[in-house]
Amino acid sequence: MSRKQPKEGGGGAGGRSLAAAFTNNTKGGAMIMKSVSIFLASGRRASAQSRDQAGNGPNGSAHQPRADTHAKDQNAGTARTTISRDNRRILARMDELNGKLNPKMLEMYKRRTHFSKVEVEALCKIYRKLVANASMNSKALAASNPGVIAKAGSSMDGIDRSVFRELLHSTFDIVTEETLMERIFCAWEKGYEGLPIRLEGWLMGLSTFLKGSQAEKTAFCFRVYDLNSDGFITKDEMFALLRNCLIKQPQDEDPDEGVKDLVEIALRKLDMDKDGKISFQDYQEAIAEEPLLLEAFGQCLPSDRATMSFLSTLQAQEDSN
Question: Is residue 212 left, alpha or beta, with left meaning phi > 0 and alpha meaning psi from -120 to 50?
Fold first, then answer.
């Protein structure tokens, strides 16, 4: 998946400022310092050659032919371009992980999501705070458990499970059991199941979560309910989802019987081709006929109240600018 485009500019006098800014960075700092060192060394060599050529007159024996000088200038220019390009790629990746966007990326995410530029910027700020919280949680865990080693550069990895689940519960009013919480996390960023949520996944996921069309929300809910990601919601998966959502009563002799009855009802409503399992096409057709079936196997989208509250916060950011 494409992430970030390199920033414009770089090279030149920026070499020393790059070294100062990223000396203490544990992830990518060594590579940047190496590139900067090569860049400065090539600059010193070029300056020394210029002084030698200026000191030797037209008749000086050390004066090099014009063709050689031109070739060396071309090689030095190519090296500087390569180093500058590498630095821009590294910095662009670091900016992305930290929730910072250059104007081109900002415009791209505006086009690819349902958010305005100001909303994208506000969501990037929230992302940075959540990543920082994930880093703090990791350090706290390491401090309270001496046997656990905090992952180096964890603050650069993205939003982890614990922070994400707290967000679902406290911000989006999603109160559900553990299995469904885990599935929402895994389904959030398509193609990166189970990994910390990165900036691109954060923005794209929230676009569906908060402003998505029925088709986008249908695809997301299906990914959540398809526990083994094989393209079908089977009877066993329906049973697992519904069993965890129901509250067992003390007088129930066999509560699983009630769950099995619900599975059969769900199949009658959602299994459009009657093959004993629910394909994505089945699910799409059933939701198109009856939208209330979208979250048939448990809540995996925010409440209307939570959605309006969150979007009004983003709107307030836009109105203040």
Answer: beta
